[in-house]
Amino acid sequence: MGICFSGRIKSQTPPPTGLNSQYASSNGNENSYVISSKVSSTLRTEGEILQSSNLKDFTFSDLKNATRNFRPDSVLGGGGFGSVFKGWVDENSFIAAKPGTGMIVAVKKLHQESFQGHREWLAEVNYLGQFSHPNLVKLIGYCLEDDYRLLVYEFMPRGSLENHLFRRGSYFQPLSWGLRLKVALGAAKGLAFLHSDESGVIYRDFKTSNILLDSNYNAKLSDFGLAKDGPTGDKSHVSTRVMGTHGYAAPEYLATGHLTTKSDVYSYGVVLLELMSGRRAIDKNRPTGEHKLVDWSKPYLANKRKVYRVMDNRLEGQYTIDVAQKVAALALKCISLEPRLRPKMEEVVKEIEQLQDFSNLDSNRSGSHNGSRQRRRSVGDSGNKIANAGAYLRPYASSPTPYSTKI
Ligand SMILES: Nc1ncnc2c1ncn2[C@@H]1O[C@H](COP(=O)(O)OP(=O)(O)O)[C@@H](O)[C@H]1O
Ligand SMILES: [Mg+2]
């Protein structure tokens, strides 16, 4: 979830305490508890959102039992607005089950007394409660009780892309090039679905920690707290407070607050660069001039002979220079300063599909450009057993400050 510039709202506004207090005027103001939804073609109040969704309405004690009282050693992740815990429920009744039996779920518990947290909670219920797509995480239910706000999702056994790309250690071996393309494709399909005419939704917080992976490395977008309906009628953009994450947010959005689907395409380009390079969008631990991935990589992306400098050393021998050049050209288009020059996500999907075909052809011919050097094995190499299969992901705290921070 994202955090607004100040956190001021958090401290000035009393926490919402029940359904009635949360109905608000339908003026579309970001401070009201009304969320517009083109799926239903109306502005919907909180009550309507909760009633219309097919989600299970959990009690707080259900979820307390399911997570064994939110045990610290079952934390899967966390951010500014709360923590995510692993839990177990019976797949039919959804009643808490013994650990190791029934269905595994991920339970996000928001900090209490947060106005912004409540709004993001409601946005997730609104969007994920209506959408069903293989590249969006499935929301199973929610809990709204007193000051408690929780969300219950399908459990994603391999956790976030962020962990796989950037955590070091035996649990997280480097992802192979094939798997990186697979994840890039899945995430692109998720965004393309949101942007499609039918829904017209802008995701607004596309980044590696919000891309979750199932046991087969299928990518699913989660964390819809900042999602927003796109412009209606002949409007070109929606005007919003600037929220999101440094390093991923599009420059024109940062400068003006004008949000379009092309803002998501920019963030997608940044994630593509992270997949190519294994470098974080922002990393202040790197030498001067290399802190911002976009700024550092741009000159290389534009130069066909220097593209390999952007590529992750750990991928040596897994891609051809042709493929690297094509991915670089795509990433460069996505991060264009001029939003109109960025491709639509549907086009990105097609390009990544072609790259996948191309990569498969090449690996069949085993013609990689630098295959002579011994390379380290990575997860997803053919013949290499997938490490960590079905394993429980160790709890990790969220990224410390040298990396991307919330806006
Ligand atoms: N369904 C899930 N399955 C497994 N891990 C999850 C799940 N949902 C979230 N997580 C973990 O928790 C982290 C934070 O979740 P997220 O929904 O992005 O919350 P936040 O609003 O704090 O950013 C993710 O990056 C991921 O590591
Ligand atoms: Mg998140």
Automatic annotation (TrEMBL):
Any single GO CC term annotated in Swiss-Prot or TrEMBL for this entry: plasma membrane
EC numbers on record: 2.7.11.1
Keywords of this entry: ATP-binding, Cell membrane, Kinase, Membrane, Nucleotide-binding, Plant defense, Serine/threonine-protein kinase, Transferase
Region (Disordered): 360-386
InterPro entries with a match to the protein in the record: Kinase-like_dom_sf, Plant_Ser_Thr_Prot_Kinase, Prot_kinase_dom, Protein_kinase_ATP_BS, Ser-Thr/Tyr_kinase_cat_dom, Ser/Thr_kinase_AS
A Pfam match: PK_Tyr_Ser-Thr
Subcellular location as annotated: Cell membrane
GO BP annotations listed: defense response
Residues that coordinate or bind ATP: 109
Signal sequence segment: none
UniProt biased composition (Polar residues): 360-371
Keyword DNA damage assigned: no
Ranges where the Protein kinase domain occurs: 70-359
UniProt GO MF annotations: ATP binding; protein serine/threonine kinase activity
PANTHER family: OS01G0588500 PROTEIN-RELATED (PTHR45621)
Family: Belongs to the protein kinase superfamily.
Protein name listed in UniProt: non-specific serine/threonine protein kinase
